Amino acid sequence: MGARTKARRRAIDLLFEAESRGLNAGELARERAESPVTPAPLNDYTISAVQGVVAHWGDIDDALTTYSQGWSLDRMPDVDRAILRLGAWEILFNDEVPDGVAVSEAVALATELSTDESPKFVNGLLARIVEVKPTLV
Description:
The protein has 137 residues and is an all-alpha fold. The chain has helices spanning 3-21, 25-34, 44-55, 57-67, 78-93, 99-113, 118-136.
């Protein structure tokens, strides 16, 4: 597993934990960077990804809600929401990650962390966001 993939996985963990505990994900990432709870400190990309998602939370959730075709954010599994938010941030707001890589990484994370149906759902929703990206940014 590459460093960027590990950083994404840790970002998903932080986004998931923060939402589950009712915390601000950006503040949680900052706290974990200052006082790590694991032997390995947070990767810079993990921190910037979580902070990027938090900075664009409303726009990301609007895009996910608009293009999810009948699935409200509340109805999605929590881990899928975290994966989709990170993937959407990489597609819409992070120019250093190609759109195809963002989708592929999100699908791989959904395969590893979520339900059997999640990879297809994540792929379809993020592919649609890639398709309409010029109208969103």
